[in-house]
Amino acid sequence: DNLLIPPLLGTEQLAVYNVGYKLFEPALIIPGVVLAATFPLLSQAGAASALRRSRFRALLGQTTLALLGLGAAVALAMWLLAGPVISLLYGSAYSGSVAVLQALAPACVPMFANYALTHGLIAADRPSLYAIFTLGSLFVNVGANLLLLPALGVTGAALATVLTEVALFALCGAGMVRHLAAGPPQVEPEAAL
Fold it and tell me: What does the angle CA 78 – CA 98 – CA 113 come to, to the nearest 5 degrees?
């Protein structure tokens, strides 16, 4: 966003966008704290045995659901409080940032869940999927920004962020479902000496 806004909309619009985004960023502390507590458990449960796979599935499901709920609560609070908070902190000069923060707010829902899913992929020893999905999300972000910035201004950049998180959620969710459905990997018997 920060690279595409200035040439397409100008530096003043970058400032308007960044006020909204800087108020959005602290929300990401919440899933970071949750994953700091649960990632060691996910890593232990990510082993191949059927018992641990069941534990991994349950723990990942609980963590993802909790983060979805927290993301929805934060998104609602952010959307409702955007106007008063921006007015209090920045005044009327940045009233355009209210729409940016309100457009970014729904991103909390998939973004919070993505913390669980991306960490789940790592715990399941699937870091290459995580890297591929992140690269795919980068392309979604750039493409969405190029389409939405000219049409919607900086609100378009915020919506591009939401679309990016939804894309990452879909990719990671599908990757995790496929991993869990595959069952434990087969271990090759050692050759007799």
Answer: 35
State the DSSP H helix or E strand holding residue 13, giving kind and residue range, or none if neither: helix 11-24
What CA–CA distance (Å, rounded) separates 76 from 83? 13
CA distance 30 to 68: 11
What's the token pair of residue 177?
Answer: 């479902």
Query: What is the Cα Rg of the chain in Å?
Result: 20
> Among candidates 20, 184, 14, 24, which has minimal Cα distance to 100?
20
pLDDT tens digits along 76-104: 999 999 999 999 999 999 999 999 999 99
Residue 122 to residue 138: CA distance in whole angstroms: 19
* Nearest residue to 8 (alpha-carbon basis) of 182, 162, 160, 187: 160
Give per-residue pLDDT as tens, 111-130. Answer: 999 999 999 999 988 999 99
Q: What is the 3-state secondary structure (H, E, C) of 144-181?
A: HHHHHHHHHCHHHHHHHHHHHHHHHHHHHHHHHHHHHH
Q: What residues contact residue 149 under an 8 Å CB cut-off, 6+ apart?
A: 4, 5, 8, 9, 156, 157, 160
Q: Is 116 helix (H, G, I), strand (E, B) or coil?
A: helix
What's the Cα-to-Cα distance from 188 to each of 10, 49, 53, 144, rounded to whole Å? 59, 15, 19, 45
Residues 6+ apart with CB under 8 A from 187: 48
